[in-house]
Amino acid sequence: MAANRSSFTGKIGFVLAAAGSAVGLGNIWRFPYLAAKYGGGIFLLIYLILALTFGFTLMVAETAIGRKTGLSAIGAFKSLDKRFSFMGYIVALVPAIILPYYSVIGGWVMKYLFGFVSGNASGMAGDGYFNSYIGSTVEPIGWFFLFIGLTALVVLLGVEKGIEKVSKIMMPVLVVLIIVISGYTIFTMDGAVDGVLYLITPDFSHFSVMTVVAALGQLFYSMSLAMGIMITFGSYMKKDISITKSAVQVGVFDSGVAFLAALMVIPAVFAFSGGDPNALQQGPGLMFVTLPKIFNTMPGGNIIGVVFFIMVFFAAITSSISLMETVVSIFHDKFKLNRKLCCLIVLGISLLLGIPSSLGYSAWGSFKILGMQILDFFDFASNNLLMPLIALVTSIFVGFVIKPKMIIEEVEITGEFKVKKFFSFIIKYVAPVFIVLILISSILNAFGVITI
Ligand code: PHE
Asked: Where do runs of H (alpha helix) occur along 202-300?
């Protein structure tokens, strides 16, 4: 990969690519349901604090490692210190675990898109539609196959660039649409304002350690951190682009879209259910249950539904392409197999891992791992275990092995790193201690030792 490494063109290239990978189902589907589940305002507040501290620090560190070494994760750790070669493999596991279940959700998006195209808006708005849909065994697997098959096709044919171009036009439209939909809900539906208040008022009685665990996992997931992706992007970044500015831009954009998506979903939950705690706890299905209800009452809702789900589909498929790319290139670099073959192997493994995630809602509904549905378990394993672990090792690596100075020097190629003391302090002391605590609570909670 290091040979004939291309670089992003223009000043904005890195930011656009990183934002394209960052904005996806994590923002539109995952953030709103977590914010609903973990106490609204308090979740948002903790997320923001974490984004400003850990998110910024890790994004800068990963990008700088990539740019300095000019290598993707596997090579980068190894070239800086042989003892850390193992990191390359752990890092590779994360996108490999995420891709299959991400594609299951991508399949749900396609099903809803198809539903709006075929004029079934009112059917999908009905109570229980979503649960009965994912409760069916065969159809969701079919849509999952289609979604991941399309992803693989794009990667196989090497036409990612074309797709990314389309999605760059779609992304601003998606943001505008999200604003319109949330504006409609908030200003026209009774009770929606309570949802806004729930989202922006931190209520400390809703605080639990799990709020922090969930917010941290979401931060990594949403900003595509702790999985080697930013290292790869950094390796394509030109030396005259400011790493810190780019990190801030990507972070602000990603968090902004997530916040707007929550503003679209949560007030609607309040309008339709009066803030019923059960509705807020719905979990992964929240967006799918809520949005059709809004579209059903909105003038022109059917068309808006079609357009909206097309955009979400693009946001999702660019992310799944970037996930699959990462896994394929790691396979390719490591085993020196033909790229097409690597792609087919990754597709095969993903099909095998994705089917149980889908069946976990239907035929295998009673099968639980640590009390979690199969899809939730994969989500938990990557976001609440592996990513914090990677972030922990990365901060120890930067803080004590290569030393913050190396990162600071890389950042300062384009000018002074104003918050370098803050950066060093977070990466050396705060991150390791905090992440260890988070990991322990997350594990104890999963095993039911404590409920916090
Ligand atoms: N950040 C993406 C999202 O929010 C998910 C993703 C992770 C995409 C890693 C690519 C790589 O949906």
From this structure: 209-222, 229-235, 243-273, 277-280, 286-297
Q: Which of 378, 349, 375 is nearest to 360 (CA)?
A: 375
Output the CA 320–ligand 1 centroid distance in Å. Answer: 7
230 half-sphere exposure, CB direction, 13 A CA radius: 30
* Ligand 1, pocket residues at CB < 6 Å: 21-22, 24-27, 95, 221-222, 224, 227, 229, 319, 322-323
Q: Residue 191: which of 260, 257, 271 has the closest Cα?
A: 271
6 Cα to the center of ligand 1, angstroms: 22
- Indicate the pTM of the whole model: 0.93
Q: Are 254 and 50 in contact (CB under 8 A)?
A: no
Model pLDDT for residues 437-449, shown as the tens digit of each residue: 989 988 888 887 7
d(CA 108, CA 99): 14
3-state secondary structure 14-30: HHHHHHHHHCCHHHHHH
- List the chain domain ranges: 11-446
11-446 CATH: 1.10.4160.10
% of residues, the chain, pLDDT over 70: 97
